[in-house]
């Protein structure tokens, strides 16, 4: 089943056409990576999907429902969550409190106006469940400002998970994350595989080829290939346009 459908999306900044007639289908439960050189338009495309940026033309549908004209908050309500670039983590709050705020925002007044012990317990349990899925429950009581960069990224993932998404848009989750932290992050995403549709933008090709079911290659705003990691890796046009030597390292 297709959970997210993109048809003929286009966006220009002045004379620069940044996304150019992009059409893609994201299947339910799959990790679909979008790769491409710097400036190819990947982040712009994600912003068009999330509703942060209005497209010049084209259409986006979630589960068959046209959301092209919907705002970002309305798309979040339909299960589309974007992580990493719009999240504002409160540094003086604990990781649990940060995630609890996202749970509260998701459930609105049902948590806010009835401050019973039962509600607070439910709120904390939901937040802890999201932290567990992101592999950060052991740091629940730590203030966000004391987290490592990699842990901070996992907190942002937990905040996105707290919105109970059907589709997760991850924009370079591994940027600036190295070594063990990167391995932990990839392992966590592996565990989430199948639970949500994940659209993953990532420059770390080891991570992309380890995680993705489908890979699409964006070059100068146009999708030049879509397919399994193996098919994309051996596509001559992709090798010429983008992957080059990098592909050799992971082959
Ligand atoms: N708000 C904006 N106004 C003008 N130009 C923009 C804007 N946002 C992006 N661009 C330009 O659009 C092009 C694509 O940018 P985008 O960030 O989408 O690429 P990207 O593939 O995500 O790159 P990277 O891999 O480096 O993050 C770039 O040339 C960028 O300078």
From TrEMBL:
SMART domains: AAA
CDD domains: ABC_Mj1267_LivG_branched
Pfam families membership: ABC_tran, BCA_ABC_TP_C
PROSITE patterns tied to this protein: ABC_TRANSPORTER_2 (PS50893)
Keywords per UniProt: ATP-binding, Nucleotide-binding, Transport
Superkingdom: Bacteria
InterPro entries per UniProt: AAA+_ATPase, ABC_AA/LPS_Transport, ABC_transporter-like_ATP-bd, BCA_ABC_TP_C, P-loop_NTPase
Domain ABC transporter: 4-245
GO MF annotations, alphabetized: ATP binding
Protein's name in the database: ABC transporter ATP-binding protein
